[in-house]
Protein 1
Amino acid sequence: MATIKEVAKECGVSIATVSNALNGTGRASEETKERIIKTAHEMGYVPDLVARNLKQKKTKVIGIITEDITVFNTVGIVDGIHEYLEKCGYSFLLGNLRLFKKYDNDFYKNDAYIEAAKKEFRIMESQRVAGVIYVGAHCREINVIPKNYKVPTVIAYSYGKAPSVLYDDEEAAYEAVEQLINAGAKNIGMILGEQTSLHTIERRRGFERAMFDHKLLMNPNLIEAGNWHRRGGYEAGKKILSKGADAIFSMSDIMSVGVYDYAYEKNLKIGKDFSLASFDNREISAELSPGLSTMAIPLTEIGRAAAQTMIELAEGKEDKRQISKLRCSFLSRGSIIRK
């Protein structure tokens, strides 16, 4: 990797001229600037961001703290953040708390992670980042930002005492259930996630509102807990279908796979014998046969919106939207009967 001194020597100009050309400043001719930029690229020159930040006493680096990079929603959000930051000339530092790996899916009930998260915030502060984006693994209130933290902070996929970007669980569930209703379903069952989860609470509210608005009876006997697990989806689907449901709204694709397992075992045809609408748009949803109709969460868009809000804060613009909720989109495949 070439240094700025080596680029200057190759071009026959001063280090200051190279620096100005690469930063878009100075009075060098356009021809000289183009030659310097081309030479720097060919020589593999990469600017020293730390040195530049110290010199300018400001930074164009954003810290991203993820609760666990392996959780399905996180990669899409980080990719959206990266895309927007890159477009705006920012780079980022990534801190991964690995909470799911350490404490399993119930990590947010274990206060042990709070100090680890606060420590990561302080590490980001010591790196003189312009701001921090905290990416939650589950939608809930985030209370791990250190008291009197001076670095601008944005929360993605959760909410708290900072500008927050997430999606509308209730409205998305409403739209998914409405897809079943519009296809002619009358006796609709529901497979719940973990019942204390905010996702479950909001999605259940959307289900109930859709049934009420369309004047359909909500039968409590057709509501079962699957607790986000494939086996839980199997058992819940078995109970719901045995009670005469003609459609199921499952709160996650993983639980929906359990319903596919049960249907295959009993020689039932999803999309012909009963309808199934799901949530999350995991990769497997398009690979099932028939394809699983599911609600896609706008993960990349959440990342972009969080990054946009972050840059506005970092550049001194006041954010008046404490919570921004983005809409999901329904992907219709073969798992819903079309009458």
Protein 2
Amino acid sequence: MMSGKSCSGSKVGWWLLLIGGLNWGILGLGYFFGKMWEWNVVHMIFGQWLWLEALVYLLVGISALLLLWGCKCKTCKAE
């Protein structure tokens, strides 16, 4: 989890990971109730615009990579 100072990019990344993780958790719950694809929150919100839905998934993936490698900016290094 984030501790201390972090840059805006890291904060946005954490929020995107939280949203993505919750979406996958809700999607998994939908699988057990037999309505797997009806519980995809990102699709419910952005389903009309497929490019925007794909962009959200891309940003969540980039956020995961940022978490793996860590942010190298001056603000995050100061911790």
Protein 3
Amino acid sequence: MNFRGRSEALIPFLQDPKITDILINGPGKFFIEKEGELTRLESPFPDPSSLVDLIERLLVPIGKRVDATQPYIDGRMEDGSRFHIILPPIAADGPYISIRKFRSPNDTQGFSEMGPRVLTEWLEKQIIEKKNLLICGGTGVGKTTLLSRLLSHVPESERIALIEETREIQTLHPHTVFLETRTATPDGVGEVTLRTLIRNALRMRPDRVVLGECRGEEAFDLIQAMNTGHRGSLCTLHANGARDALRRLEGLLLLTGVAIPISVVREWVGSTLDHVVYLNRENGRRQISEVMSVHGLEGEVYRIRPRFTRGQVIDFT
């Protein structure tokens, strides 16, 4: 880590493998998440100047800046950890710094604890069989961990286009191209969006398209990609359940501004997605709590088939 001066105080927390998140809520307010439990500690950054020094150490290596014209920024540290910075006055008593620690794709512990072995093995089989998966849940429930692990089961003969706003997903797959968005300059030029990256990725001969997180108009391009020969693609989405994920995906598809009837949107979703996996956290433990298969439409309603719910295997045939 390229930390010097007061910013060196962060190093022990970055090196502790049991810590997953580091949260700095302004001067003197310091929290960590360790083994699923959020704890407040004495802050190694007691004053604004110490946080300014830390922000500089985070941004200089990646050539980005944060200031009054752009008071928030996402970035990636040298070890793969992801950080987010937001400045006052948007951050009322900030600056706020949130760091999500890097987890190696070799670290299978988080994945193996997410559900029964029969479930994780079934999900791995779906990847090999080129099923389209939507992985959903709230913040910090393990969506990226699950997605990273599943990518390791994609055959090495296939090419993956992995698209993210800030690179976070880790994979050992030997034929992966990583595409990352870019924000506009202070002059308002140079922006590269997720939609742009998906469209470019389709010209790069991918076998599978993987979107780190779907949260806007890019849903339209992703569904079209999944529905036009790129089977076995994956995506994550924020949602409160498997059914809720389908409704939220419908809403995102309608954000394009194109007058698309909801019946057509549902036909696209029903014919494209094969399985929806929902994760949550209980008592600090990340886990798969629901798996649902989608088999098109029955009238105007999705024909769904529960596979797993709340720790109970329903049907993996």
